[in-house]
Design goal:
The chain has 12 helices and 18 strands. By secondary structure, the protein is of the alpha+beta class. The protein has 2 domains: 227 residues, Aminopeptidase (3-Layer(aba) Sandwich); 142 residues, Aminopeptidase (3-Layer(aba) Sandwich). The longest helix is centred in the first third of the chain and has 27 residues. Bound molecules: tetradecanoyl-COA. Tetradecanoyl-COA (MYA) binds next to β7, α6 and β8.
C-alpha cells in the first residue's frame, strides 16, 4: 500500500514536471507571435494599473508599410468579392473543406454563403479586408483571412489607438457623441493606401468609417475571423503572412487594435470561455457521436429528458422587426455596458446584426401587450457543422446563443423560449458560451459542458484578464 502511494506521488510529481516543461515550451515557442504587440503568456497582466491599460505599440501611421507583404512564389493576393456568387462559392468551399474542426476531427464548421455575407459585410465593411490567397497558376483559392470594423470597450476604456477619447458612453446615449467623434490617429493623418508593386491589387482608399451609416468614424477595432489555410499548405508559415498583410491593410485605414477568438492558446488570452451544449435532438446527437447515452439511461428516457414544449411560453414573444431597431439597439447597448469587454452597436449595425435573416440569424422580442413597449430580446444564429465520415447524417444543425437583454422577463424564460424556437426550426443542438449572464441559466436548462474552450484575444492592447462572465462580446 505504502509503495503504491509512493508510486502515485512519483507519477504525479513527474506529471507536474512534464506539465511545467510543457508550459515553459508553450511560453517560449511563438516565432511569429513573439514579434507582435501582444502580451507574452508569462506576462502578469493582472497586476496592471488603470493607467497601464492601453495600446502596446503607439500608432505610427507614417510607418505603415505601403506595399503588400511578399507571398511565396507560387501564390498571389486576391481580395474575395462576396457580392460575386462565384467568389462567395469559392470561399464557402475553402472553409467547408478546411476550416475549424473539433478536437477529434468529427465535425467541421460549415458556414453558409448567406452567413458569410452577413458576417463579413456589416456597415462600414471594407472589401480589401477580405483577403484571399490564390495559387497563381490555377487561380485556386487556398487561404483567407477576414476582418470587420467594430466599436469595442474594455475595462471602461474605448479600445482605440488614440487616448484622446476613451471614456465609456453614458448609458442614456448608447451611440455616444464621444464614440462618434473619436478619430484614430492614422485616419486623422490621412494615411494613403497604395496597391504597391507586383501581384497585389488592393485599392485602399481611405474613407474612415464613411459607410457606417450613421455618421462619423465609430470604428475602434477590427474583429478578425475566418483565418484559413488549405490543409495541403499547413505549417508553411502562411498564416503569419496573412495576419501581417491584414494588419497592414487595417493600419492603413487608421485602426491599430483588433480582437479575435480561437480554440488554440496563443499569447495571450484576455479571456477564456467554455462551450455548453443543450441537446434538442438527442437521438441524432448520439448517432453521430456528438454526445453519448449516459450510464443507466435508455434512448427513450433521454429523449424524454430533453423534450420541450411545442410553442414559446412567454406572452408577447414575436420576431424582431425593423421598427424595433432603434429602441432595441439602445437597450442592448445599455445591457452590454455592464460587461468588462463588450461592443457598442450603432443603429445601422444593430439592424444588420439583429434583424432576422432566414437560416442565418433569428431574433425575437417580448412586447408588452398593454404598453406595446419591447421589454426583452433574445437571438441565436445558425451555424451548421459537417459531420465527417458518417453515412447516415451529413450535417449537424447547431444554433448558437447570440445577443439578448432582459428588463422584465427572467433570462431563464427567455432562454427556454430560444430552445423551443430552435427546436421548432429543426436545430439539433443549442450552443452557448459561459459569457454574458449565461452560466447559471445554462445549468438550469440541461446544457452540458463541452470539451471546447474559446480564447478571446486583443491585438495591440494591454489590459488585465477578464472573467468569462464579464465578457459581453459574441464573435461569429
Ligand atoms: S480562429 C480560426 C482559425 N482557423 C482554423 O482553425 C481553421 C483550420 N486551421 C487552419 O486553417 C490553419 O491551421 C491556420 C494556421 C490558418 C489556423 N490564430 O501558417 P502556419 C499561429 C492566430 O505555419 P498553419 C480565427 O479565424 C501559430 O501559433 N494564429 O500554421 C481568428 C504559429 O505562430 P507562432 C494562429 O497551421 C484568427 C503560426 O500561426 C492560429 O498552416 C485571428 C503558424 O503558422 C490562430 N487560430 O495555419 C488571427 N493558429 O509560431 C490573428 C495558428 O508564433 C489576428 N496560429 O506560434 C491578429 C490581428 C490582426 C489585425 C490587426 C489590426 C490592427
Amino acid at each position: 500500500m505504502g509503495s503504491d502511494k509512493e508510486d502515485l506521488k512519483e507519477a504525479l510529481s513527474s506529471l507536474s514536471v512534464r506539465q511545467q516543461r510543457k508550459n515553459a515550451d508553450e511560453a517560449e515557442k511563438h516565432a511569429f507571435w513573439d514579434t507582435q504587440p501582444v502580451p507574452a503568456l508569462s506576462d502578469d497582466t493582472d497586476s496592471l494599473s488603470d493607467t497601464q491599460i492601453g495600446p502596446i505599440d503607439p500608432a505610427e501611421p507614417d510607418k505603415v508599410r505601403k506595399q503588400p507583404y511578399n507571398l511565396p512564389d507560387m501564390f498571389q493576393w486576391s481580395d474575395v468579392n462576396l457580392d460575386r456568387d462565384e467568389e462567395a462559392q469559392e470561399l464557402y468551399t475553402l472553409l467547408h473543406e478546411n476550416y475549424v474542426e473539433d478536437g477529434d476531427n468529427m465535425f467541421r464548421f460549415d458556414y453558409s454563403i448567406p452567413f458569410l455575407r452577413w458576417a463579413m459585410q456589416p456597415p462600414g465593411f471594407r472589401p480589401q479586408w477580405h483577403i484571399g490567397v490564390r495559387v497563381t497558376q490555377t487561380q485556386k483559392l487556398v487561404a483567407f483571412i477576414g476582418a470587420t470594423p467594430a466599436e469595442l470597450y474594455c475595462h471602461g476604456a474605448r479600445v482605440q489607438a488614440s487616448a484622446a477619447v476613451s471614456a465609456l458612453p453614458s448609458p442614456s446615449s448608447p451611440s455616444s457623441s464621444a464614440a462618434e467623434s473619436a478619430q484614430p490617429a492614422a485616419a486623422a493623418a490621412g494615411e494613403e493606401g497604395s496597391s504597391g508593386e507586383g501581384d497585389a491589387e488592393p485599392s485602399e482608399e481611405v474613407v474612415p468609417g464613411g459607410e457606417a451609416g450613421d455618421g462619423g468614424n465609430r470604428d475602434s477595432v477590427v474583429e478578425v475571423n475566418f483565418l484559413c489555410v488549405h490543409k495541403k499548405l499547413r505549417s508553411k508559415r502562411l498564416a503569419p503572412v496573412l495576419i501581417r498583410e491584414l494588419t497592414r491593410r487595417v493600419n492603413i485605414c487608421g485602426i491599430f487594435q483588433a480582437c479575435y477568438t480561437a480554440g488554440v492558446v496563443l499569447p495571450k488570452p484576455v479571456a477564456r470561455s467554455r462551450y455548453y451544449h443543450r441537446s434538442l435532438n438527442p437521438k441524432k446527437l448520439i448517432e453521430v457521436g456528438f454526445s453519448r447515452l449516459a450510464p443507466r439511461m435508455t434512448m427513450v428516457r433521454t429523449i424524454k429528458l430533453y423534450a420541450l414544449p411545442d410553442a414559446p411560453q412567454t406572452r408577447g414573444l414575436r420576431p424582431l422587426k425593423d421598427a424595433d431597431c432603434e429602441i432595441c439597439c439602445k437597450m442592448l447597448n445599455e445591457h452590454l455596458l455592464r460587461f468588462t469587454l463588450a461592443p457598442q452597436l450603432s443603429i445601422a449595425e444593430f439592424r444588420h446584426w439583429m434583424v432576422p435573416r432566414a437560416g442565418v440569424v433569428h431574433s425575437y422580442v417580448i412586447e408588452d401587450s398593454s404598453t406595446k413597449q419591447v421589454t426583452d430580446m433574445i437571438s441565436f444564429y445558425a451555424l451548421p457543422s459537417s459531420i465527417l465520415g458518417n453515412d447516415k447524417h451529413r450535417t449537424l444543425r447547431a444554433a448558437y446563443c447570440y445577443y439578448y437583454f432582459a428588463t422584465k422577463t427572467p433570462l431563464l424564460a427567455l432562454m427556454t423560449d430560444a430552445l423551443i424556437l430552435a427546436k421548432r426550426q429543426d436545430f439539433d443542438v443549442f450552443n452557448a458560451l459561459d459569457i454574458l449572464d449565461n452560466e447559471p441559466v445554462l445549468k438550469e436548462l440541461k446544457f452540458g459542458i463541452g470539451d471546447g474552450h474559446l480564447q478571446y484575444y486583443m491585438y495591440n492592447w494591454r489590459c488585465p484578464t477578464v472573467k468569462s462572465s464579464q465578457v459581453g462580446l459574441v464573435l461569429l
